[in-house]
Each structure stands twice: as structure tokens, then as C-alpha cells.
Amino acid sequence: MIDVSNAPHPRLPDQLLPNLRLVFVGTAASTRSAEVGHYYAHPGNRFWRAIHEAGIVPRRYQPSEFAALLELGIGFTDLSKSGAGMDHQIEAASIDVPGFRAKIEKYRPRTIAFTSKKAASLFYGRPSSGIALGRQPRDAGLPEIFVLPSPSGAASGHWTLEPWRELAAWIAA
């Protein structure tokens, strides 16, 4: 376990329970999210608007309400629980794919959704360019996996709501 007590940005706690219908997985907390302790907290981040517009949640939640999504069967985690910042700022040593896999085995969510191709590429161990958005081919022993375009304002050139809508249709089925 990495000691983050002296880290400049505290990590965000996992929001996980057994058998959730969906878990969102990022690379790491943004600097803003780490500062305020809320997932997807930067004002330019599209996450909260996207999950509402896609139909994943019934109303527009605020970042400070992230824990309330557990009541809807939706959880949160990141591949790096000690890093904070943009993907390219996260130290490779802080990425814990085995730890993430252990969480998936322990909590057994129905679906996981990576909130960037970067997070998915770290999980799969292959370049982002080789990963398609949307539902991924089924992998025995894992939940259904979706890859979503990053909701970060820094990734606006690659933004589309369609994979988010595909995810909403899947979890509603």
C-alpha cells in the first residue's frame, strides 16, 4: 500500500459495493477532484452532464453528490488511487491494475465503464489507438466492459455522447 498521507493531493475513496450495476473507472483523480474530494469535479468536465443526457441517471447530479449514486447501483474507482492530475501527469508506478482486478473480483459489478481510452489501455496493456469506444468484446471472468470518451475538457476534440448512450441502453436492459 502506498502511503499518501504526505501526498499533495489526497486520493478519492472508492465508492464500491457488491453487485453494483455499473462502476465508472478513471485513470486517476483530477487535481480539482483530489482537492475537493469529489469525482469528476472540474467545472469543465462533462461527466455529470453526460450521464444525465445519456439517460444513465434520472437527473443532473453535482460532483458533491457522487456518493448518492450508490443508491442507483453506480460506483466509482480509479486505476491510480495515489496519483492526481491529467493522465500524462500520473506516475506509471501509481497505476495498480492488479489491485483494480482484485476489486472487480471482490465486488463483482455487472458492468465497468472506463472513462477514457487511456484508462482502458492501461487495463488491457495495449495502446489507446487499438481500443475502440463502446462495448468491448466479452472476456470470460470479467464484467461487461465499456470504453467511453474522456469527459475531461482537455479531451474535447474527441468528445461524443454516443458511447455513453450505448452504455445507458445496456444497463437499462
Quick structural overview:
The protein is an alpha/beta fold and 173 residues long. Helices cover 25% and strands 12% of the residues. It has a 5-stranded mixed beta sheet with strand order 2-1-3-5-4.
Write the layout of secondary structure elements.
Elements: E1 22-26, H1 31-36, H2 47-53, E2 74-78, H3 97-107, E3 111-114, H4 117-124, E4 134-135, E5 144-147, H5 162-172
Parallel strand pairs: 1-2, 1-3, 3-5
Antiparallel strand pairs: 4-5
Task: Explain what this protein looks like in three dimensions.
The chain has 173 residues and is α/β, with parallel strands linked by helices. The protein has five helices and five strands. It has a five-stranded mixed sheet with strand order 2-1-3-5-4. The radius of gyration is 15 Å and the shape is globular. Residues 1-10 have low confidence and may be disordered.
Features of the shown structure:
173 residues, 5-stranded mixed beta sheet
**What string, H for helix and E for strand, traces the elements in order?**
EHHEHEHEEH
Strand content: 5-15%
The level of helicity is: 10-25%
Outline, from the CA principal axes? globular
- Spatial ordering of strands, largest sheet: 2-1-3-5-4
How far apart lie the N and C ends? 38 Å
Structural class: alpha/beta
Query: Count the helices. How many?
Result: 5
- Point out poorly predicted stretches: 1-10
Integer average pLDDT: 89
Q: Using only CA atoms, what is the Rg?
A: 15 Å
